[in-house]
Amino acid sequence: MSTTNSAVIAQALTPAGVRSTRVAGTGVLSWAESPLVFLVVMALWWLASHAGWISRVFLPTPEATFASLRDGLVNGELLAYTWATLTRMFQGWLLASLVGIALGALIGMSATARAWLQPTLEFMRPLPASALLPLAISIFGLNPSMVLSVVAFGAMWPVLLATVHGFTAVEPSLQEVARCLQLSRMAFVWKIGLPNALPDILAGMRLSLTVSLIVSVVGEMIASQPGLGQAILLAARSFRASELFAGIVLLGLIGFASSALLAFFEKRLLKWQHP
After folding, report:
1. DSSP state letter for 132
2. Binning pLDDT at 50, 70 and 90, where does residue 86 land?
3. Which residues of 90-116 are buried (b: 16+ CB within 10 A; e: fewer)?
4. Are 270 and 199 in contact (CB under 8 A)?
5. CB 47 within 8 A of CB 63
6. What is the separation, in whole angstroms, between the first and last Cα of the chain?
7. 224: left (phi over 0), alpha (psi -120 to 50) or beta
């Protein structure tokens, strides 16, 4: 008997309670490891800054960083900068999601559209959104609409490609059922296409949300628009290391919280997949 077959038989003969206990133990261990890694990183940061391994001009202490973060949110302009970045990020993300889902459904439903548009999409997809900022500045000028358009362009591609993949992966049997029921194209999209593509769309939207945050910050730095990107750039130019790191920490918290929130809604929306 082969080793693979033996392993499969052993797993099958393992009581369900033992298997669930092992899975639960693995989950507890992973939850315990994440804070441990965070504490190790914080300890190394504290040691490197207090021991003078790196000059405090470039690496502030954690205490100074969190003090600047607290003062900036309570007494300074950091809260206004954060709100500006969040607004720009979510507006660009929503616009990118709407356009990406609409175009993705159109392309995914039509083999003719895919044949005509696929070369253009493959040409434009690798273009970094930050490289288009000079072109956007020449078209829109230095204003919030320019940054919003670049954010939407950069964040659209994950949603668009995920939607195309979700629609093209619809089972042929479901298409036959739709033809037998004489469903219109819009009814097919709404009742069959979108539910089938929803896992791909939500995964693309999670990636798109991260891209929108990155492009928002880069756009604020280059176009001098109010936001965390501008605040970080000004702090770096003035050698205010604690304020610089406070902005970076705040960006990390925003990215983590937004991804966790979207993952929560994704789990609720896809609850039907795991009854």
Report:
1. G
2. very high
3. bbbbbbbbebbbebbbbbbbeeeebee
4. yes
5. no
6. 36
7. left
Token pair, residue 10, equals 């052993």
Distance of alpha carbon 84 from alpha carbon 147, whole angstroms: 12
Let me know: does 206 contact 95? Beta carbons within 8 Å: no
Q: How buried is 84 (Cβ within 10 angstroms: 0-12 exposed, 13-18 middle, 19+ buried)? A: buried
- Alpha-carbon distance 155 to 129, whole Å? 9
pLDDT digits (tens, 9 = 90+) for 22-37: 444 444 445 556 788 8
- 115 phi/psi in degrees, rounded to 5: -65, -35
Question: Tell me, what DSSP letter sits at residue 57?
Answer: T
Q: Within a 10 A sphere around the Cβ of 18, how many other Cβ atoms? A: 9
Beta carbons of 202 and 271 less than 8 angstroms apart:
no
Q: What is the pLDDT of residue 101?
A: 92
Is the pLDDT reported for residue 251 higher than 70? yes
Taking the C-alpha atoms of residue 175 and residue 16, their distance in angstroms, rounded to an integer, is 39
Q: Is 85 exposed, middle or buried (0-12, 13-18, 19+ CB in 10 A)?
A: buried
Q: Left if phi > 0, otherwise alpha if psi is -120 to 50, otherwise beta: which for 57? A: alpha
* DSSP-assigned letter for residue 273: G
Which DSSP string do the residues of 11-29 spell out, in sequence order? HHHS-HHHHHHHHHHHHHH
**pLDDT value, residue 160:** 92
